[in-house]
Amino acid sequence: MDEKETWGKPVERRGRLTAVLALATLISAFGSSFQYGYNVAVINSPAPFMQQFYNTTYVERYGQPMEENFLTLLWSLSVSMYPLGGFFGSLMVAPLVNKLGRKGTLLFNNVFSIVPAVMMGVSEIAKSYEIVIVARFIVGICAGLSSNVVPMYLGELAPKNLRGALGIIPQLFITIGILCAQVLGIRHILGNSTGWTLMLGLTGIPAVLELLLLPFFPESPRYMLIQRGDEETAQRALQRLRGWEDVEEELSEMRLEDQSEKAEGRLSVLNLLSQPSLRWQLVSIVVMNMGQQLSGVNAIYYYADSIYASAGVKQNDIQYVTVGTGAVNVFMTIAAVFIVEASGRRLLLLIGFGICCTACVLLTAALSLQNSVFWMPYISIICVIIYVVGPIPYVVTTEMFRQSARPAAFMVAGSVHWLSNFTVGLVFPFMERGLGPYSFIIFSIICLLTLVYIWLVVPETKSKTFLEICQMFASRNNVEIKLGDGDLPLKEKGTPDS
């Protein structure tokens, strides 16, 4: 009896984590996703010394100290230029991944890391705070591309039974990047007046390693077959990734997806917005990405020190509490890698938004009562640590769209993600000044609304092919999916066959 059959029934071969797949995942995640996290947190700890440098430079130029409001504006720009660059990076996703491929885009993206790393490294010698602000924008472009392209690349490399776990690896490396920046930001390491330029410049090292190592690993087989029409290269890539010769089953599934998309062609963002068959998928990724960023989770990283100070943490202890927060986030993301395949994506999203919502309410209460109840500052710290265990929508963004729509979908998702991130980074200090602890109530409402949406609309996508997931959305989108006959694959319900 054939090894793929049991009592006459075909048994699906489950993909495994081969050395090639594991190394491609680690190199792309460390070279790209790690930098995203690192640059989120890298300017939090050395903020006083960087602002001192801004002021000293201004005095040397103009002979008088910088006005406080102007310094606040420059610092706000230093923080918010990063997510603004991320937004512009997201706009580049679709054209680059269609032209250069997933791996090719990641390699090209290293330019947006190495150049600003050098700029930030020499900013003090050049006596220019403008260089720091421009470099933050450029490295933001790098983060905007990597935050979208790495999940897309890994989602297309992975077998469907490992797609969820590997889809969380980029988020894991983001949290590791944040933790590394927090550790290096300790005062007696690099978070001081002499070490901050080196600390900012270290972001170029992962980029150089990725540039040297990633060329030895395969391009996305789905990209090679469906978008480039190169079945031979796709087959060789699959054989390396799976560790066996017989990859016909996966190739057949890709050919079927290719055939079902022939009539649609490659979708631009405008085409994507007008496709009835993708309406609810598009709404879902917008809601989830907006919900994740407007939950305020990145405000914790941008302004962690000021939040802990308002929570009553002693000045000397803040840096260590911040590192503890980063360590918990790494640990919880590692747990999510295993949970996502055991329990599914939908449950993980619901738990993530539920935790954020609850933590926001408790944090508001704790910050309000900390002057009257001596142990409340400890509750505030616990709430912040729990708060950063946020939801991870990247996995389902990859899974909800087929090959032709995926680049445009990531472009939309990334743009929403980074615009929301930029908004929070820019607005939160004013919210904190105006509303105090009650600013977190706004975040809790956003988390609750997103949770309700996911509960009502988003299906479970665990262990489903991209076509099966598309069929799951078909009834909600009021379309029918026809495969294998070469005709237009998606039809409005009620439309007679041609």
Automatic annotation (TrEMBL):
Any one GO biological process? dehydroascorbic acid transport
Which InterPro entries does the record cross-reference, listed alphabetically?
A: GLUT (IPR045263), MFS_dom (IPR020846), MFS_sugar_transport-like (IPR005828), MFS_trans_sf (IPR036259), Sugar/inositol_transpt (IPR003663), Sugar_transporter_CS (IPR005829)
Q: Does the keyword Transmembrane helix apply?
A: yes
Q: Name one GO molecular function term.
A: D-glucose transmembrane transporter activity
Alphabetically ordered keywords of this record: Cell membrane, Membrane, Sugar transport, Transmembrane, Transmembrane helix, Transport
The Major facilitator superfamily (MFS) profile domain covers: 25-462
Q: How does it sit in the membrane?
A: Multi-pass membrane protein
| Reaction equations catalysed | D-fructose(out) = D-fructose(in)
Keyword Transport found: yes
A Gene Ontology term for the protein's cellular component? sarcolemma
Q: Where in the cell is it found?
A: Cell membrane, Sarcolemma; Cell membrane
Instruction: State which residue ranges cross the membrane.
Output: 73-94, 106-125, 131-154, 166-190, 196-217, 282-303, 318-340, 347-369, 375-396, 408-431, 437-458
User: According to its UniProt record, where is this protein mainly located?
Assistant: membrane
The entry sums up its family as follows: Belongs to the major facilitator superfamily. Sugar transporter (TC 2.A.1.1) family. Glucose transporter subfamily.
Per its record, how is this protein called by name?
Answer: Solute carrier family 2, facilitated glucose transporter member 5
Species of origin reads Takifugu rubripes
> Top-down, what is the taxonomic lineage of the species of origin?
Eukaryota, Metazoa, Chordata, Craniata, Vertebrata
Name of the coding gene: slc2a1a
